[in-house]
Amino acid sequence: MMRIPAARYSVSFCLCVSMLFFVSLAQGQMFACKDSRGKISYTNAPSSGGCVALGSGPQKRRNRWKSPASYDPKAFDRAIWAAGNRYNVDPHLIKAVILAESGFNSRAVSKKGAQGLMQLMPQTARELRVHDPFNPKENINGGTRYLRRMLDIFNGNLVLSIAAYNAGPGAVRRAKGIPKIPETVRYVSKVLTHYKGYKGEAGA
What is the pLDDT of residue 202? Predict the structure, then answer.
């Protein structure tokens, strides 16, 4: 049997390990996992909660939130700020609602028939005198007016007003809080997260 010199064996072993590591990395995120004895192992398929993604070092606090909108939010800034000033609603809150409702897609239509940026139902749009719900300026104006109405009904309580925007004021009154509707619970959390993120961006 041919013997491989120790030095060459060491180099070959390191190269194999490196190749395996980069192949795994190319296939997916690598994780460093520590077991109960403190031993660290590396894998691309973590099986426990004690694993940390490699290359996911700490980020600056202000950069942790990023708007996931696929459409350009800045395209509607002028209309958002104008509606915010007209109805005394924080423009960052309006943007948070739009992001949660439509992702800034002015042509969005929900399964229930809600339309446009702030997802106005046809009946609500008529009540708010929004003639074209797909017109960004009209939709933002109408949606902000409705949001102002919710804030007035619930005495400025942000959480209840956001819940009412999604589920309706009647549902919030009956529940005496956020209705136990999974969609509404997720919606409130989503809008508050986006709102905090936009205000953080403005502060930064």
Answer: 73
pTM higher than 0.70: no
C-alpha distances (whole Å) from 95 to each of 7, 57, 75, 175 are 62, 30, 11, 27
> Is the Cα dihedral 72, 73, 74, 77 positive or negative?
positive
Report CA-CA distances (Å) from 64 to 57, 88, 201.
12, 29, 10
Residue numbers annotated as active site: 101
Measured CA to CA, the distance from residue 162 to residue 188 in angstroms comes to 6
CA distances from 84 to 67, 78, 91, 124, 145 (A): 20, 10, 5, 19, 9
Chain centre distance of CA 129: 30
Cα-based distances in Å from 37 to 34, 41, 191: 8, 12, 42
- Answer whether 146's CB lies under 8 Å from 128's CB: yes
C-alpha to C-alpha distance for 38 and 89, rounded to whole angstroms: 52
All domains of the chain in start order, with CATH: 6-54 (no CATH), 73-203 (1.10.530.10)
Low-confidence ranges of the chain (pLDDT < 50): 1-28, 54-63, 65
